[in-house]
Write a structure and sequence with these properties.
Layout: E1 8-12, E2 16-20, E3 23-27, H1 29-39, E4 43-51, H2 54-64, E5 73-76, E6 82-88, E7 94-98
Parallel strand pairs: 1-4, 2-6, 4-5
Antiparallel strand pairs: 2-3, 6-7
Length: about 110
């Protein structure tokens, strides 16, 4: 039986916390994409940056419980982990408040990433 080739999928970009009325949820489109690729059996890598803060460390702890490669997630001592606050109006229509100037805004392309 021939084994299927696995692809290497890199989710490059934001890695953040969605702050929902029901609680926090780890997110960011590139991270979500990498997670789904891993569920489908490919080797998935997240290339991003989180703050060297409580949320950043929680991010890494949560991701380490999955099959994702987080060796390319950088820690940023100067900028916080990204968040998006989601609020719902009386008709459940969401509004989003995106925190700016956060860790993933300062991703560094390093020789390791090549």
């Amino acid at each position: 039986m021939k084994s299927e080739a696995k692809y290497i999928v890199v989710g490059l970009g934001e890695l953040l916390w969605d702050i929902l009325p029901s609680g926090r949820q780890l997110g960011g489109a590139p991270a979500n994409f990498a997670y789904m690729a891993a569920l489908l059996g490919d080797r998935a890598i997240i290339a991003s940056r989180v703050g060297d803060d409580t949320l950043g460390h929680e991010t890494l702890q949560q991701l380490e419980q999955t099959s994702l490669d987080v060796s390319h997630v950088q820690l940023d001592a100067a900028h916080p982990t990204g968040t998006v606050r989601v609020e719902l109006d009386d008709k459940d229509k969401p509004t989003y408040t995106i925190q700016e100037d956060v860790a993933w805004d300062h991703i560094e392309f390093t020789p390791d990433w090549q």
